[in-house]
Design a protein that fits this description.
The chain has helices at residues 13-18, 32-40, 51-60, 87-102, 105-113, 123-175, and strands spanning 5-9, 25-29, 46-47. The chain is mainly α. It has three domains: 1-76, 3-Layer(aba) Sandwich (D-Maltodextrin-Binding Protein, domain 2), CATH 3.40.190; 77-120, no CATH class; 121-176. 59% of the residues lie in helices and 7% in strands.
Amino acid sequence: MKGKRIGVIKESFPYELLMAYPEIELVLISRLKEAFNDIRMNKLDAVVVDRWSGEYILAEEEITDIEVIPTFLESQYSRIAVQKGEKELLDLINSGLETMREDGTMEKVLEEWRFERVFYFTFGIMRNILIRTLIIVIAIIILIAGYLVNKYRKLSQKLQVDVASRTTCCRLRTQN
């Protein structure tokens, strides 16, 4: 990233991490949506942000022309917070986490999820999926109804021809 303009949020983990590299030109950003637009307009070369926030904004804004690089610069684990004075709960959580570290469960879970992509279904995306699904279902119903109407129209015409034919045949017999 030498010589590149990299967007970061001030006082964030990526900001603190990249401050150690003076050859990178850090550009302070306040909103990720605008930062992603700055990438599109070549005002920034990249944005370094925590994975979940970046992917969420990309999904929320339906931005598909920005590439997410799966390589991590650094990883940092989340923290668990409990209300002050909840020593029993805190001890229980810490004991569970320690057991998970010791028996390898923690590393297995982290490794399993490390490169998983998360798909965010925002209200807008869900509404679009619902509308498209309804349109498809209605179109299928209309096609089936059209097929059945056409089939029964042809059957009705055939029956009318058969009835007319038999009626004519019966009239000729009674006249003879």
